[in-house]
Structures are given as C-alpha cells and as structure tokens.
Amino acid sequence: MAHAEAVGTPSSPDAAKGGTSGNPWLVLLAVCLGVIMVMLDGTVVGIANPVIQADLKASLSDLQWVTSGYLLALAVFLITAGKLGDLFGHKRVFLIGVAGFAVSSVGIGLSAELAEVIPGVTPIGMLIGLRVLQGLFGALLQPAALALLRSAFPGEKLHQAMGAWGAIIGLSSAAGPIVGGVLVEKVSWESVFFINAPVGVIALVMGVLLIKENRTPSMARIDWLGVVLLSGAMFSLVWTIIKAPEWGWTDSTTLTFMGAFLVLILAFVLWQAAAKQPLVPLSLFRNASISIGTLLMMMVAFAMFGAMFFLGFFFQGVHGLSPLEAGLYMLPMSAGMIVASPLSGMAIGRIGPKLSMAGGLLITALAMFLMSQLSIDASFVETAIPFVLLAFGMSPVFVGATEIIVGNAPVNLSGVAGGLQQSAMQVGGALGTAILGAVMASEISDTLPGNLGPAAQGIPPEQLTLLEKAAAFGTAPPGVPQQITDAVHSSFMSGMHVAFLVSTSIAVLTALLTFFVKVGRKTEGVPVHVG
C-alpha cells in the first residue's frame, strides 16, 4: 500500500486554498442537499411500504428487497466509490451520484409505467431493480461529499463543518417520517421519490457553480474482481436468508445458495490476501479493535434496521394509523438523534468509548425490550418512550464505533477504514431486515393456527397460507370475520415481539464486545479515502 496518498493532500495550489470557487458554507449546503436525498429515502420508505405493498401486490420478501437491495448496493460499493473519487475527482463523482440518484428516484415513481413497456418485468421487480441502482448512486454521493468538505474547509474549521453536517443530516432524518407521511397520505407513494428530482437539480446547479475539482495523484486501480466477489457473496447470503423460510432450510436450493456464499467469501478473502491493491486490505483486521469495531457496527445496525422494518406495518396495519400519523409516532426517535448525537460525542470525550458504548447498548436493549411489550392499542407515549431511549442508546455506539475503526487504522488506510465502517453498517442493516423477517414469518406460521382456534379447522391449507402472508403485513384480507382479523393481528404482534426480543439479546451481547477495544489514535489531517 505504498502507493496510497491522503485525499486531504491538496493536488493543486488552489486546492490548498480551499478547493472551492466560493463560500465554503455554500459548498456545505450543496453537498448536504445531495446527501439529504439519501437520508430522506432511508426513512420515508418505511412509511411508504404498506401502501407500496397494497398498490403493487408485493410479498414480504419483495418489500424486504426494497430495503435490502438498496442497503446492499450502498454497502458493497462504498469503498469502491471512495477510490473512484480519488482517481477521477470527487466533484465529478459527487455530481454523477446526485444526478443518478435523482433520475433513479423518478424511475422508481414510474415503476408501474416502466414495467408495462419492458416484457417480463413486474412493477415491484422494476422498483427493486431501481432501488439497487439508487443505492449505487447513493454510495457515490456519501464518501465524495465528505472528501469535498475536507477540501473546502481549513483544518481548524472542519469540526464546525462536521457539526453543521451532523445537524442537517439529523434534521433530514427527523423530517423523513413526517414528509413521507404527508406525501403518501395527501399525494401518493410515488411522490416520496419524485421529490428527489427538484432537490437533485438544485444540488447539481450549486455543485457545478461552487465546487472546484480536486483529486489525489495516485497510481491506484479499482479491484474489480474484489467488487464482483464481495457483491456475489452478499447477494447469495441475503437471498438465502430471505427465501429459506419459503424453500425450507434443508432444501437443496437453500444449501446451494449458502454454498455459493461460502465459496465466494472464501475466494474474496484469498484474493484480498494476494491482490497488490485489494478492495479491503486484510492488514486492517490484524488490529483487534478494528475487527471488533466493525462487528459492533454490523450488530447494532442489524438490531436497529431489522427491528425498525416492521414498525410501519404495526402502526398502519395493526394500529390503524394513517401514514402521516405513523410518521408522527416515529418522530421521537428521529428527533432524539439530533439531541443525542452531540451529547454522545461529549460523553465519549469525557469517559471514553468503552463505557459510553456499553451504556448505549444497554439503553438500546432496554428500548428493544419495551418495544417487545407493546400492545395492539399502544398509546403515543408508550411508543415514544422506547423511541427516545433508542436514540440515546444508538448514538454513542455509532459515534464510538467510528472512532475505534478509523482511529486505530494506520494513517495511510484511514479512508479505507472509514469506508469499511459505512459498509458494515449497511450490510448489518440488510442482514437484520432479512434474518428478523425470517424469524417473524416463522413465529407467525407457528402462532396463527392457535390464534384462529376452532375456526382453523375449516380453513383450507392454501387459504391458511394466504392468511399467514397477510399477517406478515399486519393486515387481514377484506371481508373476513372479525375473529380472523383479530387472529391475524395477534399473530403479527407475536412475530414482532419475538423480533424485538432477538434484537434485545443482540444488544446485550454486543455490549460485552465493547470492553475488548481500545481508544483510537487522535491523528490530525487523516485522509478521507485512500487510492
């Protein structure tokens, strides 16, 4: 890795002066507008999912892929995207990411129309494919945005820019459920994605006018074989987990996909050990703190994103709320993150990451446990308490794990470590959605016949299967007796409770890992990406 150079190293005299042709705070605004699209889409989809399911006749696994496909595309491509910025310029990569994200968002809103002109493609299949494409462009956006901020702001003001960045990202996350609820309820689910078009156009115009190009002079090449192997391995793993309940865990198809994952991930590791310029240098994992920090990020994202997937169905399907009301119910968690994030940074500075993260994970476990006790008619206060606890529990973990991963990495690999941290979070979220979805489906299948009582004896097996699928969304087919609706809702609640209890256990176990890490080095001017 002797070829690696820091992106923070200016490539021209102009870059040394700031790397922009205007006010750096306007550059911050332009960059944030691009990233706001990514953040909004990450929070509004949960609100839109129930309406998408009804409109496009999607299955539970289809909706899981609406989330998982997007997350996987982000996870697999983040490190590669950072290196593309080093090679071809971060402004260029950022603008391509903005344009691609906006165009693919419009395409998602037109999924039904596009499917009509492409033979053999269903509307939900088109939506999933475009969500994957959207994730790829989102991956271009995020690392390039951070690199551009480092170029725009001198070192002594960079922390101010990062503070403003965090506040804007927090506000966009908090606004997501509300904006999504209003658009879904008052306009359509498609409008949730159409709104990215004007935001993208403004970000593009500001980016072209305000941002000056900078790149790192480097001889690096993209490890395309590594990208292919890692992408194939993660696809095989998540596809297996999502489809195994339908196929059967011992079915030959399940075993084939799981075998493909093992072969591909082994080939990836062997190739990374042999490659001259690997996608993920294995030398990073010789440091136990980096390895544990990566695992921490994956497990926390697993618990959070996996459990949160079902809340939209709980609020709208079982609880009977409108999309806007569901967004308001989820607001305490998003708003809590705005307050909790800066406080977490202060806590880590005072008592260190070990105790901060351990305490955060225990608070997270308590929040997940309280969610496992929610009733069908839970009030706003009953849901708001665990949501606020979750915000204050997750924040120190995300901040601390980032410090551990990047701070313990060698200076010339800090950018790769940063990409690794983001990838671990996205992969953990995708796996959490898949695995907890399988757990929930299994619990529904086990409990629905008992909840139906004697009525189950008169229901044909194929109709019982349809009821199980409906129960996964918290809804019952129209026109069925109230007894069956109650049984479907009760089965959904049983499945959701088990999913949150699994997340509770994961949070407690993860807390133990925090005591095996050490504080990272405080290095000024570390690179954002390594070529």
Automatic annotation (TrEMBL):
InterPro entries per UniProt? EmrB-like (IPR004638), MFS (IPR011701), MFS_dom (IPR020846), MFS_trans_sf (IPR036259)
* GO-annotated cellular components: plasma membrane
Q: Which Pfam families match?
A: MFS_1
How is this protein positioned relative to the membrane?
Multi-pass membrane protein
> What range(s) does the Major facilitator superfamily (MFS) profile domain occupy?
27-522
The organism sits in which domain of life?
Bacteria
Q: What is this protein called?
A: DHA2 family efflux MFS transporter permease subunit
Q: Where are the transmembrane segments?
A: 25-48, 63-81, 93-112, 124-149, 161-180, 192-211, 223-242, 254-274, 295-315, 327-348, 355-372, 384-406, 427-444, 498-517
Q: Which GO terms describe its molecular function?
A: transmembrane transporter activity
Give the taxonomic lineage as stored in the record.
Bacteria, Bacillati, Actinomycetota, Actinomycetes, Streptosporangiales
Q: Give UniProt keywords alphabetically.
A: Cell membrane, Membrane, Transmembrane, Transmembrane helix, Transport
Location(s), subcellular: Cell membrane
